[in-house]
What does this fold into?
Amino acid sequence: MKPLSLTIERSKKELWGRVHYDDDLIMDSASSVERLERKMKKLLKELHGLDPNTILFDRQYDLTVLFEQFHYLKITAIAEKSDMNSALLRQYVTGIKHPSAKQAKKVEDAIHKIGRELSKIAVYAE
It folds into this structure.
């Protein structure tokens, strides 16, 4: 089965997720990404008869959840790599402002670039 896009956003108290499947918008909330995935799989089974063991998700995070889930990402470093003002990125992360698709893509590209750089690292040991 082709992975389904699971969009994950933060509300004040919990995470909200949504999946589009077969012209349906399926939504639920949970306290963690893992719980949210389990609940979404259960709903897909109940509503569409899908086997939960075959369901894979491509997670799409809003910036608040992204920086919560990957707490080791530093806003200043990501802003620098994406040619963005770090104060503006902080406003996106805290929900004060919301990024355009272009701005969100710049952040995504910067994180992917860092991932490629890190994948080339070799650690020397004597």
Remarks:
- The first strand starts at residue 4 and ends at 10.
- The longest helix spans residues 101-119.
- The helical segments are 33-48, 63-69, 75-81, 86-94, 101-119.
- Residues 67 and 73 are 7 Å apart (CA to CA).
